[in-house]
């Protein structure tokens, strides 16, 4: 089942959210943008309005293999106050489904209680929000079914990491090569060939 929830609320960080949707869909992974606002139109931090695919109250959790939480402030703090989202995260962790968050988004995972004793990253300066997690300094942190990333500049790499986790390295490389310039593609292939 390759279908995932991406949570949206007003003031979401557009690069962190929409890069996940774009790249994962390029890999034939279904991502539903789910609004927690009670309306389908959701407006980002920078005034970009998007139309969510559905409202959280309408979804059937059995149809989903994981959840992605973008950052943005106060969006991430609003999301972590939504009991429906926290319950989904807890349930998905119990079922060992994929859980991912970027930038301030990992604070939502901490509030849901799924980071206790686990490795995670968050936007620099917000480490206290991770409560009892093992705070790392990596750009992206993978701890079993939980993947966290530090900020908007890593949105593409987070998407590639998710694709690799869901569909494998071959699909990740295909999407990576479709979304980068050919000079960079050649550089990546050369680095790989040289074992870097």
Automatic annotation (TrEMBL):
DJ-1/PfpI domain segment(s): 5-164
Coiled-coil segments: none
Gene Ontology CC: one annotated term: cytoplasm
CDD domains reported in the protein's UniProt record: GATase1_DJ-1
Name this polypeptide is given: 4-methyl-5(B-hydroxyethyl)-thiazole monophosphate biosynthesis protein
